[in-house]
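Entry for fe (ii) ion complex. Fields follow.
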Amino acid sequence: MARATDALRATRAGIRARLQEVAEKAGAVTSGPPAARAATMREVVAGLDRCLRGHLEWEERTLHPVVDKFACEGPRAFSASMRYEHDIIHRWMAELARRAGDPEDAVGFVRHADRLLGVVLAHFELEEAVFFPILDETAAGHAIGGPLAPALP
Ligand SMILES: [Fe+2]
């Protein structure tokens, strides 16, 4: 039987594949020639932005209200921690973009990119382990994702 979150889980699988590509690019920053580091760092920042910004905004606009509706009463009560983690991710993405302007600190850039990717993957796992099962049990018949989820660029 199809789950309410099947389309969203498929979207997430695509995002994870893109994040792996970004992680590999970040890992290659310091092994490339110094002259190419700034461009590679900017590519990492742009890749993360393409992967995450639209998806996180879609979640905040669409998924979190559904979670709150089905999981408990009260606006934003249940999704508050997820919303806060989005704030952390947005803030750390901005920090990574700032660090991309300093090719002399490629090691610091890669370290920050690794931390950010770890937070994103932990955030996804938490949502998929806690939120999605709640939605699958309570929102049966309400497909979540699919045409509402932003297409990956
Ligand atoms: Fe999220």
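NOTE: The mean pLDDT is 87.
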